[in-house]
Amino acid sequence: MSDLLKKSFPSEILFFLVLLFLSAGGCNLMPPSSVSSEDLRNRHHFDRAMIRIDQDLGQGHLNDARHLIEVWSRFSGLDASMKDRLAAKKEKVNRAFALYDTGQATQLEKLGRYNEALQKIRQARSEEPGWSSLVNEENLIRIRIAAQSSMAPDWKSMIRRLMVLKTRDPKDPDLDKTLAWAWASLSETQFAGGQYREALLSAREALTFDSQNARATTVQHSISRMLEEWTEEGEKKFRRNDLFGSIALFRKTLAIDPSWSRASKDLSMASEAAGVEIHRKDNK
Asked: Is residue 123 part of a domain?
Protein backbone atom coordinates (compact mmCIF):
# COMPACT_ATOMS: atom_id res chain seq x y z
CA MET A 1 0.00 0.00 0.00
CA SER A 2 2.79 2.34 0.93
CA ASP A 3 4.54 1.61 -2.33
CA LEU A 4 1.31 2.34 -4.16
CA LEU A 5 0.93 5.72 -2.42
CA LYS A 6 4.45 6.65 -3.23
CA LYS A 7 3.86 5.85 -6.83
CA SER A 8 0.41 7.53 -6.97
CA PHE A 9 1.27 10.76 -5.13
CA PRO A 10 4.37 12.84 -5.69
CA SER A 11 6.33 13.81 -2.57
CA GLU A 12 5.26 17.45 -2.93
CA ILE A 13 1.59 16.50 -2.62
CA LEU A 14 2.24 14.34 0.43
CA PHE A 15 4.06 17.22 2.11
CA PHE A 16 1.14 19.56 1.36
CA LEU A 17 -1.34 17.09 2.85
CA VAL A 18 0.70 16.79 6.01
CA LEU A 19 0.77 20.57 6.44
CA LEU A 20 -2.97 20.76 5.85
CA PHE A 21 -3.58 18.05 8.44
CA LEU A 22 -1.50 19.85 11.08
CA SER A 23 -3.05 23.26 10.42
CA ALA A 24 -6.53 21.77 10.81
CA GLY A 25 -5.73 20.78 14.37
CA GLY A 26 -5.25 17.08 13.70
CA CYS A 27 -1.97 17.11 15.62
CA ASN A 28 -0.77 19.82 18.01
CA LEU A 29 2.96 19.56 18.41
CA MET A 30 3.30 22.86 20.39
CA PRO A 31 2.15 23.03 24.06
CA PRO A 32 -0.53 25.68 24.73
CA SER A 33 0.83 28.89 26.26
CA SER A 34 -0.39 29.57 29.82
CA VAL A 35 0.38 33.33 29.50
CA SER A 36 -1.49 35.43 26.98
CA SER A 37 0.18 38.12 24.92
CA GLU A 38 -1.88 40.72 26.78
CA ASP A 39 -0.59 39.45 30.14
CA LEU A 40 2.95 39.66 28.82
CA ARG A 41 2.40 43.25 27.68
CA ASN A 42 0.91 44.22 31.05
CA ARG A 43 3.83 42.69 32.91
CA HIS A 44 6.25 44.50 30.64
CA HIS A 45 4.53 47.84 31.32
CA PHE A 46 4.42 47.06 35.03
CA ASP A 47 8.15 46.30 35.14
CA ARG A 48 8.88 49.57 33.37
CA ALA A 49 6.64 51.43 35.82
CA MET A 50 8.51 49.95 38.80
CA ILE A 51 11.80 51.10 37.31
CA ARG A 52 10.33 54.52 36.62
CA ILE A 53 9.22 54.86 40.25
CA ASP A 54 12.79 54.31 41.43
CA GLN A 55 14.02 56.85 38.90
CA ASP A 56 11.46 59.43 40.02
CA LEU A 57 12.41 58.94 43.67
CA GLY A 58 16.08 59.30 42.81
CA GLN A 59 15.38 62.57 41.00
CA GLY A 60 13.11 63.91 43.75
CA HIS A 61 9.93 63.65 41.65
CA LEU A 62 7.87 62.29 44.53
CA ASN A 63 4.47 63.26 43.12
CA ASP A 64 5.20 61.46 39.84
CA ALA A 65 6.22 58.33 41.75
CA ARG A 66 3.04 58.44 43.82
CA HIS A 67 0.94 58.94 40.69
CA LEU A 68 2.33 55.71 39.19
CA ILE A 69 1.56 53.87 42.43
CA GLU A 70 -2.03 55.10 42.33
CA VAL A 71 -2.46 54.16 38.66
CA TRP A 72 -1.24 50.59 39.13
CA SER A 73 -3.17 50.19 42.39
CA ARG A 74 -6.37 50.55 40.35
CA PHE A 75 -5.29 47.94 37.81
CA SER A 76 -7.21 44.68 38.25
CA GLY A 77 -4.82 42.39 36.38
CA LEU A 78 -2.03 42.19 38.96
CA ASP A 79 -0.94 38.77 40.14
CA ALA A 80 0.31 38.06 43.68
CA SER A 81 3.96 38.79 42.94
CA MET A 82 3.11 42.07 41.21
CA LYS A 83 0.93 43.14 44.16
CA ASP A 84 3.81 42.45 46.55
CA ARG A 85 6.21 44.51 44.45
CA LEU A 86 3.71 47.35 44.23
CA ALA A 87 3.17 47.31 48.02
CA ALA A 88 6.94 47.50 48.57
CA LYS A 89 7.22 50.47 46.20
CA LYS A 90 4.32 52.19 47.97
CA GLU A 91 6.12 51.87 51.32
CA LYS A 92 9.24 53.31 49.71
CA VAL A 93 7.32 56.28 48.31
CA ASN A 94 5.59 56.92 51.66
CA ARG A 95 8.96 56.89 53.40
CA ALA A 96 10.35 59.39 50.89
CA PHE A 97 7.41 61.73 51.47
CA ALA A 98 7.79 61.42 55.25
CA LEU A 99 11.48 62.35 55.02
CA TYR A 100 10.68 65.28 52.73
CA ASP A 101 7.94 66.61 55.03
CA THR A 102 10.21 66.24 58.07
CA GLY A 103 12.94 68.21 56.31
CA GLN A 104 10.47 70.96 55.44
CA ALA A 105 9.28 71.04 59.06
CA THR A 106 12.87 71.53 60.24
CA GLN A 107 13.35 74.47 57.88
CA LEU A 108 10.05 76.04 58.95
CA GLU A 109 11.07 75.72 62.60
CA LYS A 110 14.29 77.59 61.88
CA LEU A 111 12.21 80.37 60.35
CA GLY A 112 9.97 80.44 63.43
CA ARG A 113 6.96 79.19 61.45
CA TYR A 114 6.02 76.62 64.09
CA ASN A 115 2.38 76.32 63.08
CA GLU A 116 3.30 75.29 59.54
CA ALA A 117 6.06 73.04 60.85
CA LEU A 118 3.47 71.25 62.96
CA GLN A 119 1.31 70.63 59.88
CA LYS A 120 4.30 69.15 58.02
CA ILE A 121 5.08 66.81 60.91
CA ARG A 122 1.46 65.66 60.93
CA GLN A 123 1.73 64.92 57.21
CA ALA A 124 4.92 62.94 57.82
CA ARG A 125 3.18 60.94 60.55
CA SER A 126 0.35 60.08 58.18
CA GLU A 127 2.96 58.67 55.78
CA GLU A 128 4.91 56.78 58.43
CA PRO A 129 2.71 56.21 61.53
CA GLY A 130 5.34 53.98 63.12
CA TRP A 131 8.08 56.60 63.44
CA SER A 132 8.24 57.40 67.15
CA SER A 133 10.68 60.27 66.51
CA LEU A 134 7.90 62.14 64.69
CA VAL A 135 5.68 61.93 67.78
CA ASN A 136 8.46 63.47 69.87
CA GLU A 137 9.03 66.21 67.29
CA GLU A 138 5.32 67.05 67.19
CA ASN A 139 5.20 67.34 70.99
CA LEU A 140 8.26 69.60 70.97
CA ILE A 141 6.70 71.96 68.41
CA ARG A 142 3.47 72.07 70.39
CA ILE A 143 5.41 73.10 73.50
CA ARG A 144 7.15 75.89 71.59
CA ILE A 145 3.85 77.17 70.21
CA ALA A 146 2.29 77.12 73.68
CA ALA A 147 5.28 78.92 75.20
CA GLN A 148 5.24 81.61 72.55
CA SER A 149 1.47 82.09 72.73
CA SER A 150 1.54 82.49 76.52
CA MET A 151 3.78 85.53 76.10
CA ALA A 152 1.35 87.47 73.88
CA PRO A 153 -0.84 88.88 76.74
CA ASP A 154 2.30 90.11 78.53
CA TRP A 155 3.60 91.93 75.48
CA LYS A 156 0.21 93.53 74.84
CA SER A 157 0.00 94.69 78.45
CA MET A 158 3.49 96.16 78.25
CA ILE A 159 2.66 97.97 75.01
CA ARG A 160 -0.43 99.53 76.61
CA ARG A 161 1.64 100.84 79.53
CA LEU A 162 4.31 102.16 77.18
CA MET A 163 1.70 103.96 75.10
CA VAL A 164 0.47 105.73 78.24
CA LEU A 165 4.00 106.96 78.83
CA LYS A 166 4.24 107.93 75.18
CA THR A 167 1.27 110.32 75.53
CA ARG A 168 3.05 112.02 78.42
CA ASP A 169 6.37 112.39 76.61
CA PRO A 170 5.84 111.91 72.87
CA LYS A 171 9.37 113.01 71.92
CA ASP A 172 11.29 110.54 74.10
CA PRO A 173 13.55 108.60 71.62
CA ASP A 174 14.30 105.86 74.15
CA LEU A 175 10.60 105.25 74.57
CA ASP A 176 10.25 104.81 70.80
CA LYS A 177 13.02 102.20 70.84
CA THR A 178 11.32 100.38 73.70
CA LEU A 179 7.97 100.41 71.95
CA ALA A 180 9.58 99.05 68.77
CA TRP A 181 11.18 96.28 70.85
CA ALA A 182 7.84 95.38 72.47
CA TRP A 183 5.92 95.38 69.18
CA ALA A 184 8.64 93.26 67.54
CA SER A 185 8.50 90.78 70.42
CA LEU A 186 4.72 90.52 70.08
CA SER A 187 5.11 90.08 66.33
CA GLU A 188 7.53 87.18 66.80
CA THR A 189 5.14 85.54 69.28
CA GLN A 190 2.19 85.86 66.93
CA PHE A 191 4.23 84.63 63.99
CA ALA A 192 5.33 81.50 65.88
CA GLY A 193 1.70 80.77 66.74
CA GLY A 194 0.56 80.99 63.13
CA GLN A 195 -1.21 84.35 63.59
CA TYR A 196 0.36 85.74 60.45
CA ARG A 197 -2.05 88.61 59.85
CA GLU A 198 -1.59 89.87 63.43
CA ALA A 199 2.17 89.32 63.23
CA LEU A 200 2.41 91.42 60.07
CA LEU A 201 0.46 94.29 61.66
CA SER A 202 2.59 94.16 64.82
CA ALA A 203 5.79 94.18 62.77
CA ARG A 204 4.57 97.25 60.92
CA GLU A 205 3.80 98.94 64.25
CA ALA A 206 7.34 98.20 65.42
CA LEU A 207 8.78 99.73 62.28
CA THR A 208 6.80 102.94 62.77
CA PHE A 209 8.70 103.49 66.01
CA ASP A 210 12.03 102.23 64.69
CA SER A 211 12.40 101.75 60.94
CA GLN A 212 15.68 99.87 61.49
CA ASN A 213 14.32 97.28 63.91
CA ALA A 214 15.91 94.05 62.71
CA ARG A 215 13.51 91.65 64.43
CA ALA A 216 10.40 93.31 62.97
CA THR A 217 12.06 93.42 59.56
CA THR A 218 12.82 89.69 59.81
CA VAL A 219 9.18 88.85 60.61
CA GLN A 220 7.95 91.04 57.79
CA HIS A 221 10.41 89.45 55.37
CA SER A 222 9.45 85.93 56.50
CA ILE A 223 5.77 86.63 55.94
CA SER A 224 6.46 88.15 52.52
CA ARG A 225 8.45 85.08 51.50
CA MET A 226 5.65 82.84 52.74
CA LEU A 227 3.06 84.79 50.74
CA GLU A 228 5.25 84.53 47.65
CA GLU A 229 5.42 80.75 48.11
CA TRP A 230 1.64 80.49 48.44
CA THR A 231 1.09 82.69 45.41
CA GLU A 232 3.53 80.68 43.30
CA GLU A 233 1.91 77.43 44.40
CA GLY A 234 -1.48 78.88 43.52
CA GLU A 235 -0.21 79.79 40.05
CA LYS A 236 1.09 76.23 39.59
CA LYS A 237 -2.32 74.85 40.51
CA PHE A 238 -3.93 77.27 38.06
CA ARG A 239 -1.65 76.03 35.27
CA ARG A 240 -2.63 72.44 36.16
CA ASN A 241 -6.29 73.52 35.83
CA ASP A 242 -6.86 73.08 39.58
CA LEU A 243 -8.89 76.28 39.64
CA PHE A 244 -10.48 75.93 43.06
CA GLY A 245 -7.17 74.89 44.63
CA SER A 246 -5.51 78.01 43.22
CA ILE A 247 -8.38 80.24 44.39
CA ALA A 248 -8.07 78.87 47.94
CA LEU A 249 -4.35 79.74 48.04
CA PHE A 250 -4.85 83.23 46.62
CA ARG A 251 -7.56 83.93 49.20
CA LYS A 252 -5.35 82.55 51.96
CA THR A 253 -2.62 84.97 50.88
CA LEU A 254 -4.92 87.97 50.73
CA ALA A 255 -6.39 87.16 54.15
CA ILE A 256 -2.95 87.92 55.60
CA ASP A 257 -2.07 90.85 53.38
CA PRO A 258 -4.99 92.31 51.36
CA SER A 259 -2.55 94.62 49.58
CA TRP A 260 -0.70 91.70 47.94
CA SER A 261 -1.39 92.80 44.36
CA ARG A 262 -0.02 89.72 42.60
CA ALA A 263 -2.40 87.41 44.48
CA SER A 264 -5.25 89.84 43.93
CA LYS A 265 -4.75 89.81 40.15
CA ASP A 266 -4.33 86.03 40.12
CA LEU A 267 -7.49 85.58 42.17
CA SER A 268 -9.49 87.69 39.73
CA MET A 269 -8.23 85.66 36.76
CA ALA A 270 -8.76 82.27 38.48
CA SER A 271 -12.25 83.24 39.66
CA GLU A 272 -13.23 84.28 36.15
CA ALA A 273 -11.88 81.01 34.73
CA ALA A 274 -13.67 78.99 37.41
CA GLY A 275 -16.91 80.80 36.58
CA VAL A 276 -16.54 79.79 32.95
CA GLU A 277 -15.76 76.22 33.99
CA ILE A 278 -18.82 76.02 36.23
CA HIS A 279 -20.98 77.38 33.42
CA ARG A 280 -19.71 74.68 31.05
CA LYS A 281 -20.46 71.91 33.55
CA ASP A 282 -23.95 73.25 34.20
CA ASN A 283 -24.71 73.16 30.49
CA LYS A 284 -23.70 69.52 30.11
From this structure: yes
For residue 247, the enclosing domain spans: 213-284
| pLDDT tens digit sequence for 98-112 | 999 999 888 887 777
Sequence-ordered list of residues with C-beta below 8 angstroms from that of 175, at least 6 positions apart, any chain: 162, 165, 166, 169
Q: How many distinct structural domains can be found in the chain? A: 3
In a domain, 188, yes or no: yes
| Averaged pLDDT of the chain | 82
The CA distance from 222 to 116, in Å, is 13
| Amino acid letter, residue 91 | E
Q: Assess whether 221 and 283 both reside in one domain.
A: yes
Q: Which of 173, 183, 181 is nearest to 205 (CA)?
A: 183
For residues 56 and 120, state if they share a domain: yes
**Closest Cα to residue 219, out of 250, 245, 185, 248?**
185
Inside any domain, residue 116:
yes
Mean pLDDT of 15-29: 48
**123 and 180 co-located in one domain:** no
Q: Tell me which amino acid residue 55 is.
A: Q
Please check whether residue 68 is in contact with residue 47, taking contact to mean a CB–CB distance below 8 angstroms. Answer: no
Q: Is the Cβ–Cβ distance between 162 and 142 less than 8 Å?
A: no
pLDDT at 33 > cutoff 70: no
pTM, 2 dp: 0.54
The distance in angstroms from the start CA to the end CA of the chain is 79
Which tens digit of pLDDT belongs to each residue from 69-88? 999 999 888 889 999 999 99
